[in-house]
Specification:
- The structure holds 2 protein chains of 2 kinds.
- By secondary structure, chain A is an alpha+beta fold.
- Chain A has 13 helices and 12 strands.
- In chain A, helix 3 packs across helix 8.
- Chain A is elongated, with a radius of gyration of 33 Å.
- The mean pLDDT of chain A is 86.
- Chain B is an alpha/beta fold.
- Chain B has a single domain, classed as P-loop containing nucleotide triphosphate hydrolases (Rossmann fold, 3-Layer(aba) Sandwich), CATH 3.40.50.
- Chain B has 7 helices and 10 strands.
- Chain B has a 6-stranded mixed beta sheet.
- In chain B, helix 5 packs parallel to helix 6.
- The longest helix of chain B is centred in the C-terminal third of the chain and has 16 residues.
- Chain B is globular and about 50 Å long.
- The C terminus of chain B is likely disordered.
- Classes of the chains: A alpha+beta, B alpha/beta.
- The interface between A and B is medium-sized, with 22 and 29 residues.
């Protein structure tokens, strides 16, 4: 028996019981729609995380000072003031795998403009930082090397700071005061949104590193930097860069074997890996929940197919009497089951995709429908049909034609 | 003279639990090409069991069955299905047509399982419907046809593969007497065209259309006689 004929017979059988066929399909429709929608939402979440991670900049290594011990109290990582602007320069010049490096300082302070004030992160930085983090200004200009060298009292504002201090006013050229030092606003940075850790990256003011070291720090070593942000030349060179930096700093800081280093390096791609892992786990979980509904749908199909076999015992007998082989009967009922699940699958894919689009429209949450998830869902629905259709079909094929013909 | 079927010492024993029931007790007879045979007998006489074996739906416990020169005894279920498909045509008491299916597709069905392509199927099905006097009814669904018409569709279906033998099991059992007569006339005319027919019935007036009458009782043949002029030389083995 040819496949086309088998399909025709199966379609007719499904058409004769439209309502039943639809209700049977519903389980698969809901299951597949759930899988598609959830995978789309999950992929959207991964995309958001990937974007956030990209917002820190790519191929980044963080070098922070080690801990100090002061009167028996260990100050924790970053507590020491062991990294200097000279170290930063050395990293830039002597590590071949390093593309860019920027020394930074961080402090939190009140920023005052007119009668408004706002507590925010004050970061000392060099022009390289904005290159590494791919963070341009939307108005005005960025911090230049001259600003750094001359310890100019200029600053860049993040969008959140602008919103809180200036409202609708144009901040460029205005004067703000940080720790009683007046700074001229020279630029406003592009909005960056949340960091992977969930902090608002736009809630910050950037000043030239040298200015921060001299005017805003009360340190007795004004040359120190709080952290060095390094960009490797490529992702493949991340590990190599880390090694180069470590050995360079070991040498510069005279750290010999057995001595604890006074700095540590952190590879930000690790954060990325963790974040990706968690979003994958989330997708997997969503997928598992959706799969359960698919299994339930499959059981519904099996149930109805069993009923259908019983109902159509006589038809099976007729077909056998006029020459259908057991395989023909098996194939016929399998085709019916697979057709049910595949049609259900297609409807489910459309519904799931539609649902995902509505979610992204209403909740403003990005969703991604991948070709892969659609393909997987489609073949999975067919597989459900094969799996749950086999037992009823085998039951039909195993009928004795004499009994089947006599069945009332 | 070639025998269409030859039964030699056919017996059929049903086992139910530890009870054994011998439905056929060593039946032997032959049917020649072109014969019209009526098999008669009360319920439980073994005639239905005999029909099932003749129709390759059941296999004898012992004995030999040759159909159209082929020893059917040694065939597997798939081969039996092919025999039913190509060499046999069935006509049942309850018509056994597919519901909600047009007449022409019911007639085509055996060809579907013999792998004949759609165009050829349609051509032959229409010809078969014409042969049984149902030209123009090919699009009608089973439920739109009268009992007599349904049986004609079933006969057309039985004829479509040019079988060696048509097996009719109480073909008039569900029909009124005038329709019965029409159907029996159709069988007679098909027989006159050279088609071999074996028919199970318990009505004597229906059996009277056949040229030879075999009567069963308690799993044995108790009589086998030529009855009418329609039969060519039929003879017991």
């Amino acid at each position: 028996m040819d496949l086309l004929q088998t399909l025709k017979i199966a379609l007719r059988a499904l058409r004769t019981n439209k309502m039943r066929s639809f209700l049977t399909m519903l389980g698969i429709i809901i299951g597949i729609a759930a899988v598609i929608a959830m995978m789309a939402v999950g992929a959207g979440a991964s995309h958001v995380i990937a974007q956030q991670i990209a917002s820190i900049g790519s191929n980044i290594i963080l070098v922070v000072p080690g801990s100090t011990t002061s009167g028996g109290l260990r100050m924790g990582s970053g507590g020491a003031q062991t990294l200097t602007s000279d170290d930063v320069r050395a990293i830039m010049n002597e590590c071949p795998s390093v593309a860019l490096a920027s020394g930074t300082t961080r402090t939190t302070s009140q920023v005052v403009y007119g009668n408004m004030n706002w507590s925010t992160l004050i970061m000392g930085a060099t022009p390289e930082l904005f290159e590494i983090r791919e963070w341009p200004v939307v108005s005005g200009r960025s911090i230049s090397q001259q600003d750094v060298d001359g310890a100019a009292k200029v600053c860049l504002l993040g969008q959140t700071v602008v919103d809180n201090l200036f409202g609708a006013d144009d901040p460029i050229g205005k004067m703000v005061r940080i720790k009683k030092v007046p700074f001229t606003v020279v630029g406003v940075l592009e909005q960056k949104g949340q960091s992977p850790q969930g902090t608002d990256q736009d809630d910050a003011v950037f000043v030239p590193l040298r200015t921060a070291q001299i005017k805003l720090s009360r340190s007795s070593f004004p040359n120190t930097v709080g952290a060095v942000i390094v960009q490797a030349k490529s992702e493949a060179l991340l590990d190599k860069s880390e090694e180069e930096i470590t050995s360079l700093l070991n040498q510069r800081h005279r750290i010999t074997n057995g001595k604890e280093p006074d700095f540590s390096t952190r590879n930000l791609s690790e954060i990325l890996a963790v974040a990706e892992q968690s979003s994958k786990a989330m997708s997997l979980l969503l997928g598992a929940v959706a799969s359960i509904s698919l299994i339930v749908g499959g059981i519904g199909i099996m149930n109805i197919m069993l009923v259908s076999v019983t109902e159509r015992t006589r038809e099976i007998g007729i077909r056998m009497a006029i020459g259908a082989r057991r395989n023909d009967i098996l194939l016929q009922f399998m085709t019916e089951a697979v057709l049910l699940t595949m049609i259900g699958g297609i409807i489910g894919i459309l519904l799931g995709a539609g649902g995902a689009m509505i979610v992204s429209r209403i909740l403003d949450w990005p969703t991604l429908i991948s070709v892969q998830s659609v393909t997987v869902a489609f073949f999975f629905s067919a597989a459900v049909g094969i799996f749950f259709g086999f037992y009823p079909a085998r039951k039909a094929a195993g009928l004795n034609p004499i009994d089947a013909l006599r069945y009332e | 003279m070639s025998n269409v079927i030859t039964l030699n010492g056919i017996s059929r024993v049903f086992t139910m639990g530890d009870q054994q029931f011998e439905a056929l007790k060593g039946i032997s007879f032959g049917v020649d090409a072109g014969e019209f045979v009526a098999i008669m007998g009360a319920s439980g006489s073994g005639k239905s069991t005999c029909m099932n074996i003749l129709g390759c739906l059941d296999r004898p416990t012992s004995g030999e069955y040759h159909l159209d020169g082929l020893d059917v005894g040694g065939l597997d279920p798939n081969q039996l299905a092919a025999i039913r498909n190509r060499k046999l045509g069935f006509v049942f008491q309850g018509f056994n047509l597919l519901a909600r299916t047009p007449a022409v597709e019911n007639v085509e069905l055996p060809l579907v399982y013999s792998g004949i392509h759609a165009k050829e199927r349609r051509k032959r099905a229409l010809a078969a419907l014409e042969q049984v006097g149902l030209a123009g009814k090919e699009g009608n669904h089973t439920s739109q046809l009268s009992g007599g018409q349904q049986q004609r569709v079933a006969i057309a279906r039985a004829l479509i593969n040019n079988p060696a033998l048509i097996l009719a099991d109480e073909p008039t059992g569900n029909l009124d007497s005038s329709t019965s007569e029409e159907i029996m006339k159709l069988f007679t005319s098909l027989n006159q065209q050279g088609i071999t027919i074996i028919m199970v019935t318990h009505e004597t007036d229906v059996a009277a259309f056949a040229g030879r009458r075999i009567t069963f009782r308690d799993g044995r043949i108790i009589s086998d006689s030529l009855t009418g002029p329609t039969s060519p030389a039929g003879r017991p083995v």
